[in-house]
Amino acid sequence: MTEKMIRIFKILNAIQARPGISAKELADVCETTERTIYRDLRLIDLIAPITNEGYGKGYRFAGNFAIYPLNFTEQEALVFSMLPSVIDTSKLPPGFESAHDKVMATHFKEKSRHKDIIENIAEVIQMGTPAYREESENFLYPVIQAILAQKTIDAVYHTQSRNETTERKIDPYFLVPRDQRFYLIGYCHLKNEVRTFRLSRFRKVVITNKSFDKGDFTITQYLKNTWSIERGEEHIHFKVKFSPAVARYVKEEEMFVRPKMTDLADGSLLFEVTVNHEREFLNWIFQYGPEAEILEPKAIREKVKEQLERWTTRYR
């Protein structure tokens, strides 16, 4: 069994080092027969995507698969680190222990490098502090760690709408920047559904050892027709006319939905988009003041007129 394990490592390394290597060449490298190599390849096929493109083409890894850099899971690293203690190393060829040490050293160096990169990213990104709190702990680093490792987090979260703080387990899927804030999108075990969490409202974040799988979840489908981050169940089709003075600036805006924009003869811009919630879209429209006119829907146009009348009364 030990000899087979070492031979499999040799085969993997040989295929990566020499894509297109033949079964005969692999047999020479491993000092065994071609029949044994074919048996080993059937076993290896269960753990690595090896392909043979036809007679005389040899073997290679499919796609972008590689065995370096090492991408051990925590469990795989633990199992491999225990290998010398569960086999009789005296029966192994010379060099096994030094080779094992090099593999483990590479794993820990790679893991340390990834940790440093994430820490540096988290430090570079500057986050604000909620006005009602003097200090706010930055949970950006552990959240990014948990997303990359696909680990569930134990969190304490404050829901502003109910002024309520709860303990939750969350599978963190994606970190989304919106309007100078970060939002975490993930599966909430407390509510048994995918939810959106504002990062600054977390009071505590601890990474657990529990792994998760996103399944068929896609961020594109989840945020479809969402103007910024606030999701709704409606499909509201807006038509807005922007004046020539701001039309070119509207075209330059970076958006999360794809609008239809039509240049009009007088230099103005007809802007059409379908969103699932009106509030964030209207807030965006309001920044252009009288340079933006809502044409449709008629009901929202009337609602905005009433709001402007109340503002006028307030400032009169």
From TrEMBL:
Pfam families: HTH_11, WCX, WYL. Residues 235-311 form the WCX domain. It comes from the Bacteria. Transmembrane segments: none annotated. InterPro entries: CBASS_pafABC_assoc_protein, HTH_11, PafC-like, WCX_dom, WH-like_DNA-bd_sf, WYL_dom. Residues 140-205 form the WYL domain. Residues 7-54 form the Helix-turn-helix type domain. This is WYL domain-containing protein. It comes from Paenibacillus cisolokensis.
